[in-house]
Amino acid sequence: MLLLLGLQVQAHAQDAAVTGSVISEKGDFLQGVNVQARKAGSAAVIASVVTDEKGLFMIKQLAAGTKYDFTFSSVGYENNFYRNYLVKPAAQKNSLLIKLKEKNNQLDEVVVTGQGIGISKRRIATNVTSIKGTELEQLPSGRLDQLLQSKLPNAQIRLTGGQAGATSIIRARGVTSAFVNSTPIIYIDGVRLDNLNTVAALGGGSAQGSAISSIADIPMDNIETIEYINGGAATTLYGSDAANGVIQIITKKGSGGKTAVTAEVQLGAERSTNDFLHFKRTADLLFQNGLFQKYHVAVNGGKDKSGFSFSMNYMNSSGVQIYDQNNNRKIDFSSGYRAALTDKLTYENSFTYVNNKYKRNRNGNQGGYTGLWFAESGSSSITGPRFNPNLDSLSDADFAKMKDYVNEAERLQDNQITVNRFTTSQVFKYTPIKKMVIKATGGIDYRVMRDMMVQTNQYLTHTTGTYTNNRGNISNSERKYMGLTFELNGQYSWNINDFSFVSTIGGQFFRNEDNQVAYSGTNVRDGSRLVSDAAVRTANDYYLEVVNYGIYVLQNIGYKNRFFLDLGLRGDGNPAFGKNIGVQYYPKAGMSWVFSSEPWMEGIHNVVSSARLRASYGLAGNLPMAWANQRTIKLDGFGGEQTAYFGQPGNNDLGPEKTQTAEGGIDLSFLKDRITFSAGYYRAVTNRALFSVPPTPSSGEMQNQQFNVGKILNRGWEFHTTVVPVKTNDVTLSANLSVNTLYNTVLSSGGVAPFNLNGFSARTLQTVVQQGYSVGFLRGNYGTFDANGVLSSTVAQSYLGTTIPDLFGSMGLNFRYRNLSLFANADYQKGAVASDWDSQFRFNYGAGTEGIPQGEIDKNKRANWLSFTNMFVHKTDFIKVRTIGVTWGLKKLSAIPGIQNMVIGFTVSNPFNFAASPFDPEATISGSAQGQGGATTGGISYATYSAPRQFVGSVRVNF
Question: Which residues form a coiled coil (predicted)?
């Protein structure tokens, strides 16, 4: 809806300027709206600006006496047009007030991820999920994966622990690889980021315990949009490294109006999540109330041909563990800039820097004293003074003694991680002729992590109960990652009668260097923090270089803007490919039919707003380990002399594993987008899956070698719906729900024996890959009891259940009354199991019967505690409410000089958990037996902290 309010002219001779503001139907100022001006009847854009935080825009140097067409577009809103606008002489005034209507259906939204250069969603045959930065601003978390929980309808994101920097398990369409982690590749403004989400090769956690994630320090402010594609044909453009999907962060580059400043304060309390604690007293023993604070300042502005954006943040969380053992302090700033250098050349850049410093408490499989293992797993009976492990049965005096012991053990811990990271993206866009765009992107992601753990003699004496003055030690590890990204592509659009064509050709190159050093010292005096002060010093190093390059061609053909063919091909080269492999090709083909645009649908447009059928087929891959094709010699030392022996056997036929995905779906919108519904089915088969194959004994080789011998199937349905039952100027109510099914199995192992992804020894418990079963199923001892409750038999290495859910999804609710908004979101899963290793230890240490028949305990005591692991396996079905929040917007603040508006909010994170398991079904150890970047499915709950609850209030002021 357009209202012509007047005319304002700023002119030099016959030039004039048109100004105005863009608002929503609710009256909110809309920032980031793209405003384009064309001469009436012409398709050529002569000026393009973006509205500022107050919704203002200005287009200069328009010819007085000439008619212009104006287009207003923004993600999540219907396009609006003002046609044949007459620009009057300089003596008169000109101003436009534009209203945009919010929409749920976004077929005309332009996306870039998986397409090289921007293209309308209606033209592509796959789904691209877009999340606006304004949606993320409501949430207090500073982690990408945690923010996206419940926001991506067809993906599941689970944090594997509640400590700062914890890894996460991210998967959408199952587990496509038994070797490569399921984390999607991540880009920011076209630059590839370090996405390591497992333990590093040296340090950064334990192989079967808590690891440190590179995702935890990706900056989450100054974001315009996040786009996500979940594999298959959508990721073909990325070739040999994108079978798990792609997340792209697009940052702000400024607006086209006056400079606007935003300041925000977030302040609140943190509480431990005690829902899954076995003993009530554990909370009093290990946890404290924490303080969360975050301060944010942003500046946005620009002119018609340039724009800038800057954001700076300080966050400090004291954590909920006593003695601030999980304190997290993070400082980051981000900037973005755009400029039209000439009429045909534009330049954009972005720069981010993060300094993230946090402490990590000992947990999981780290040995010695660890707080949760001591309290929840019953090891208090064998640690230090040796307490009664049943905390809740202790007398007050005995519990006070235990608390004194734990206080000192926690106080003396000294574990610290420091991360410094900067990322920059540089983009040039050149338009040599009409409808042709050439885009060049280059950038760097540089991340340095230092992990330090100090164990003093005082700490070891206290926790072991044995005096020592020569076992103090310091363990340091450093990981330096540098990723280079270069991409050059071009796109040309043209029409022939009813046909439209969009042709894209481009090339990508990335090079990652991963340099790690571990150095430690033992027999260190208390108070020293330098390895050089140790009597005994050791060191180790690790170097990894990954290079990948490819060329792609995409062709999109449209007919009458309603039927589209989407075709593409990528060819990849990589030094890790065997010499017999050569270039690897990844084709894709798809169709999109917007049948709501057909003439025979015109009569029901008020009922069916839009309708689209889509289908596609495509290949994407996962790279083998760098240089895994090479035959090597292992060099070492023995007795002070050099030694050499067989290293990697080599494989001249080694190539990427390729996931071929066939999918189809329908997208519907009813009653002017009041109801949207999307349904789809996919079948993804990973051929030539990478398995680690042990050598034949007669070969004399000693090391496993990667071979392309496996075959993995994932298939399922994907549903998503949004319903807006109430929508008026004052009141809006909307709800969304996603449902995803999943079937995963290893179709073939190529004759390779079962191997483990995670866990412990084969005689205890592992997550395993085996033909005929899901990837990462639980394997352990299955015990059977007789009529008297006594163990009668044990079958070793039995199937105990799948760790991959067959049903998962998310849900959300949003309500608005004028300037007051309420929101909540949650996610769920069903069909998986996990092992309660804490419960198994409690039984062993006599802290509880844990459901084991009394007959077995009376006869055999605790001797058979490893013989019936099946008794400690539980379903991990859950519904978790991730956030509940409220915001209140104050708009009329003209009485306060300089303040445009204010938003007051309050958010609760992780408020409610409903789970079938007695332990936290998400807090499962995430290490990988395959090493750095290896596949993992979780499935083992072992002394791991749950994510804390946060109660955070916020005040955001726009100046």
Answer: none
